[in-house]
């Protein structure tokens, strides 16, 4: 994939509720509406693990069954939040680590912003404008390139595999939704920070320090780290896939090859300089990757299917009763939250506020005019039911339970 990286060079926080990689389905991650469903089983053989030829490549990713979720650490100019890596893409390498690119010029869509916003994926687009940003501010070109170069080579996204009546470009919408959702399960910055590895200009790191921290946090999986002139600037997390890119299960694996970083003396500088102005040529005018400012006092309100449904009480539970006023300390990229009961934190996947609670470092993401609470980069929260009257529910991160929603930060 080095050719893609070279081409793009000229174009171009929190503790995760589940602190390790598990087999992950995009459809299960965030309760975000999907334009498509594949109808494929997710219990069969994973890509690159078959021992005989598979004929139905609509439900088995081939030949590009070695999938890389790649992330950038851009420092000058800096891109994205100062406490998060940003998305490079999702690449379908062949099982032997070779790869194909630009597989179908007839589907090299442009105007990605409009494609997403016109097909119910405005939340995906909002996230991309902060976390999938080009180093030179040319987001539209960057996104279009990633789709054309890599998305068109995914067998499970060929138009013949789509449900009858699918709109033109639906498979590209699914591609961007899946990439965003997968990225949100891979908080590289947070995993390094939790091991005491923070961006700095005053020290260097060994490759073993970096990979050991990431392997431990991810549940035993080693990524590939790439450097430029000894400076860390890219990471690749590897997966096989059960089912379709649209809604299949991503199975984490160790990197089959080493990155370009040296064994020692690796620089991990903080993001500096001014982020490039983000230009979107269609579907939303001009914006920047910086989220809105963080209020010092706020209520945390639940949004479910576009409608407000209560919010957080002082204990951090979901309720339709009078909402708690929370104190927020920090910036949108890194802040703590307290109620009158004490610190708010995520432990074992559930949110609580109270005395003795270890404070979690949250972040905030601008989406659809709302400033959304995020834990580990994810804005998804879930509960076992919908509150009513005096009935309240525990708030969990992710979307593994019956009721999915986001939490909006509303200044008081």
TrEMBL record:
Superkingdom to which the source organism belongs: Eukaryota
Signal peptide span: 1-17
EC number: 4.6.1.19
Active site residues of this protein: 88, 146, 150
Family: Belongs to the RNase T2 family.
BP GO annotations: RNA catabolic process
Keywords: Disulfide bond, Glycoprotein, Hydrolase, Lyase, Nuclease, Signal
PANTHER family for this protein: RIBONUCLEASE T2
Gene3D superfamilies in the record: Ribonuclease T2-like
Region spans: Disordered: 259-296
A GO CC term attached to the entry: extracellular region
Matches recorded under Pfam families: Ribonuclease_T2 (PF00445), RNaseT2L_C (PF25488)
Name of the protein in question: Ribonuclease T2-like
UniProt keyword annotation of Transmembrane present: no
Recorded GO MF terms: hydrolase activity; ribonuclease T2 activity; RNA binding
Top EC group: lyase
